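Box 3.1. Reading complex inputs
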Amino acid sequence: MRNLLEKKVLFFGGKGGVGKTTCASATALAASHAGKRVLLVSTDPAHSTSDIFEREIGPEPVKLLPNLWGLEIDGALESQRYVANVKEQIKSLFGHHILKEANKQIDLAASMPGAEEMALFDRIGGLIRGEDTRFDLIIFDTAPTGHTLRLIRMPELMEAWIRALSRSRQAMLGIEQDDKTDPVLISLTDRLEGLREFRARLLSPRISAFMLVLVAERLPIEETARAIEQLNDAGVTVGGLVVNRILPATSPDPFLQSRHAQELVYLDEIDRRFAKHSRVRVPQLASDVHGVKTLEALSEILIPQPQPSRP
Amino acid sequence: MSIRQNIRDFFHGAAYGAYERELRMQAAELNDMFLLLCYMEVVGLPNPATLYLLDVYPYLLEQFHVWHKRMGMDRLPLGNLPCC
């Protein structure tokens, strides 16, 4: 799993409650120890990252530890920021009357369903394109699988849409005027460039990978299988699987023993079905992960520090 | 105006004059298509690109006005859009 740290963008996804946030945080910690400047981004509205690091994290990167920053992005807030930004941009370009009408239109459009998701997508796109050059590695702790896969499909969808729009605009301009300076076309072309770069980085196996977290139970296994299928479909690299919370085999307790026996069957199934992907097993820890100390232990299991080489 | 420009205009008129009306209509149709794609949710269709179009809306306001005039509507029939 060490080669994961060579990537620029890592996603952590999986069924709700399997420990995505913990694994993402532990990986971020390991990467920061390895000397990478890491940004840990939470897109889950539940925002448990601040609970793990025991401090407030907001919509701007906050320094948590040396080499490690945290960021929580929220759709509603991003959409407000986006709208404010557009209004600021057009302020100097138009007269008072047009601005008044245009601002009304912008507010209306921004209140449509889907605007928040779109704003979230735009912010993630900016991060993936590497707008913030302070960081070597960006780790996304995502919302449960379905939602995230939609988000990953969005650059493709949006690109097709904007391309259609800009073709339509071009066709019209071709007849009416031969003008390369049409501001609408320029704006659309800029968007298209941005989306292309976003998608190229997302699909590059050298830059991005998607990690799937699961526990050894029926439903998470099925969801992981589906997620892998969809990621393959979308062309996103699967970086590996984290099989979380494996029970100890040594317990004398008959209840735990029976759970463990069942778990072995599932672990076997995981090894069989996901043989193509690298897997790492994480044992159930004695206490839940909360605070940097316990996170250290987990990060050591996920990505072992290299032994100092002897001369 | 230079002679060159005159000659260019002459040939342009000779070539396109007869088709100008048709070309204008075609341009208008393409324009309508573009407006529809930009304002889909006004007519109740979801538009995935809404947010990316916000900054072009001010440029389109005028075209919108031209459209509803051309369609023979003095006032805009879509109540929630700010036009006359």
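In summary: Chain A touches chain B through 43 residues (CB under 8 Å).
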